[in-house]
Design brief:
- The protein has 297 residues and is an alpha/beta fold.
- It is 47% helix and 10% strand.
- The strands form three sheets. A four-stranded parallel sheet has the order 5-6-7-8.
- Helix 10 links the parallel strand 5 and strand 6.
- It is globular, with a radius of gyration of 19 Å.
Length: 297
């Protein structure tokens, strides 16, 4: 998962000197942070260092990343009139992202996966004003003003598509969006697409119906069960519980082997965690996981 770098001491050294947005807006730094897990762990692909609110900030939304909280929106979106505060994303708005991707496309020894947040996730941040466990304001808008909600999602889908197009056209080899509208907006680019969500075990078939090439599976659904639900037309990514990485190596190895055995060498499986790397994870454990998966094929 894309947070692999945050457990690395070399990443923490960069973060001690630079804020998230400063890194993202500085192509050399963003490229360096993106490459760190590849160098340290030997993984088979890199994921662009970014944040889901980057395109929102680029189109003028007053959003900041607060330590220990996450994205915080200064003035939440609660009415139809608020949608007027969003404008289309132009390539020059995120030229620094394109520059980062060009550096990575030139220097990475593995493919680069582009990254963007799903329209629903972006909408929930805008409406709630920040992270939420209840999504009370989001649900109130969905149920109380469905036309406004639909317009907000459509507007954000356009912004997400534009953000991903910038990445792909600069050299990213795969993308990580959500919703049929976003996938449809990228169909002409001829790159593989990955659709991932958390707590989405009962939604896996719907996620596949949205049109991706790969569906990400979190650790709550065994990989063999997920493959039964998804059928043979879509690949899967996953799904080691990130907390397992904090266990003794014998437990980690057993869980890795269990996932590979459940997949039973069926093609179309990207071994990965089922969510982001926990910051306290030992990078050496991650490296051993990579080596074990490579050894077992």
């Amino acid at each position: 998962m894309r947070q692999a770098g945050r457990s690395l001491p070399e990443y923490r050294a960069v973060r001690e000197k630079h804020g998230m947005f400063d890194i993202i807006r500085t192509p050399e730094l963003a490229a360096e942070v993106t490459m760190q897990p590849v160098r340290r762990l030997g993984v088979d692909a890199a994921i662009l260092f970014s944040d889901i609110v980057v395109p929102l900030k680029a189109v003028g939304v007053d959003v900041e990343l607060e330590a220990g909280i996450g994205p915080v929106i200064a003035t939440p979106f609660r009415t139809a009139a608020d949608i007027d505060r969003l404008r289309p994303l132009e390539p020059e708005d995120v030229a620094y992202v394109a520059d980062t991707v060009r550096i990575l496309a030139r220097e990475l020894p593995v493919p680069l996966i582009g990254f963007a947040g799903a329209p629903f996730t972006l909408a929930s941040y805008l409406v709630e004003g920040g992270p939420s466990r209840t999504y009370a304001h989001t649900k109130a808008l969905m149920y109380g003003e469905p036309d406004t909600w639909t317009e907000l999602l459509s507007t954000l889908a356009d912004i997400t598509s534009a953000f991903l197009r910038v990445q792909v056209e600069a050299g990213a080899g795969a993308v990580l969006p959500a919703s049929s509208e976003v996938f449809d907006g990228l169909a002409d680019l001829d790159v593989p697409t990955i659709h991932f969500g958390v707590n989405t075990g009962e939604l896996l078939t719907l996620m596949a119906d949205a049109g991706p090439d790969v569906v990400g599976v979190d650790w709550r659904v065994p990989i063999d069960v997920a493959r039964e639900r998804l059928g043979t037309d879509v690949a899967v990514q996953g799904n080691l519980d990130p907390a397992v990485c904090l266990s003794p190596w014998e437990a980690v190895e057993a869980k890795v082997r269990d996932i590979l055995e459940r997949n039973a060498r069926r093609p179309g499986h990207i071994f990965n965690l089922g969510h982001g790397v926990l910051p306290e994870t030992d990078p050496d454990v991650l490296r051993r996981i990579v080596d074990l998966v490579h050894a077992l094929g």
